[in-house]
Structure prediction request, 177 residues.
Amino acid sequence: MEEIEWQAVLEAVLFAQGDPIGADKLAAALELPEAKVTAGLEALQKRYESPASGLTLLHLGDHWQLATKNQYGFWVRKALETRRAAPLSAAALETLTVIAYNQPVSRAFIEQVRGVDSSSSVAGLLEKGLIEEAGRLDLPGRPVSFRTTDHFLRVFGLSSLEDLPPIRPAGGKEETP
Prediction:
């Protein structure tokens, strides 16, 4: 298969997949080396940067996803007649922040940091797909732990968790690791 053809196949698979997919799975499906697939993904991403394209290729950690550009969201929503998702409450944002910066974490840890019951916030974040169960912690009672999802990265426009803004202490000065 020639380069232009396999990039077209790669584009078709990304479109049909809809959800984020790893370069390793794409490489296995296309029967190509992962490095070649990654180079193809990067070439597609660059091609979509053109103002003539309404698409973008998101790099979400170790996954890739074909999506529409943000500036065309109004028209996409209008065409699909979808309503804007309800914004997150302050409690949900606090809970999500605790999880994002400390993951994987148990509900008890979240509640210890926040100082209040976080059951409904965790349930709402799970329902919205912003967090997911990450297994059980090796602690007494083997509590369920939570982590953020690729959907979280996409919603907040992040490529990876390393793109999260730094946490500043109460004095306003940035901590140095």
About this structure: Residues 21 and 82 are 25 Å apart (CA to CA). The longest strand covers residues 55-60. The chain has a mean pLDDT of 87.
